[in-house]
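[Automated response] Your request has been received and processed.

Submitted sequence:
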Amino acid sequence: MDFPFQNCLISAENFSVQQVRQLLEYQDGIAYLLLDLRKFQEEMQQITEKDVVARYLSGLEQGYVNKFRSDKRKREWLGGRFAAKCAAAEILAQNGKTQSWSKLAVLPDENGRPFLSAGNGNGALPDVSISHSGTLAAALAVSNGLCGIDIQKVTDRIIKLRQRFCTASEGRILQSFFGASHEKQSPSLTKLWAAKEAIRKVADTKSLPGFLELELKEIGGGPLHEGSPPWRFTFIWKHHDINGNPVTEKCFVAVSHIADYALALTTRNDTLD
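Generated structure:
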């Protein structure tokens, strides 16, 4: 795979694709990448940003990147797009399709959700999702259905926000599984936040769920050792479809930690109850 920023990729040894598929009960192709944005910035400086943009972005993408005034925001945007293209190219290769990742474009739809375009109408393309936090960018691609990824740096600020996304019942589940000590609060709450964000990214954008509408029901241990990462968070989402009919969805999210970050991945087509 022709990926010019190979040295910027981060290995997540405790969160393999096979483990993700098992936790999500997902049978189709899946690929995800983590990118170190600091190393990415260094690589861009060596190549020069102008050459990076001209060589690896489509005309439409170049129009978006030229609007950024913040170097930090531009770095995050570029890193996320390149990671998403690489993940999507891997999915296409798994399906026997040859498509250079640099020929793919990641564009926002009318609601801001990223989607993949090849500009040649050559059939269905993988769904992609992008996230970034701190010095990391993350991207996920799947061959069938929708996907969502979220990465969050663990900080104590999350404790002040807990009323916005964590119910008393969910707090008890987190404490029961991860422990009730103060130093465990921020990591466990960040995992919950990331898991809910991942689900929101695969929701119908016309009925985007609020954090408190997604109810954590259970946390399961990893497939190798009970209680060790990665974990499966199981949620219930009660809402109404476009016809006003009540719908209950069971949503699985694969969750792990990478250094001092929480990482959550989910898919949509396998989560309908």
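Summary generated for your ticket: The mean pLDDT is 88. The longest helix spans residues 71-94.
If you did not submit this request, please reply to this message.
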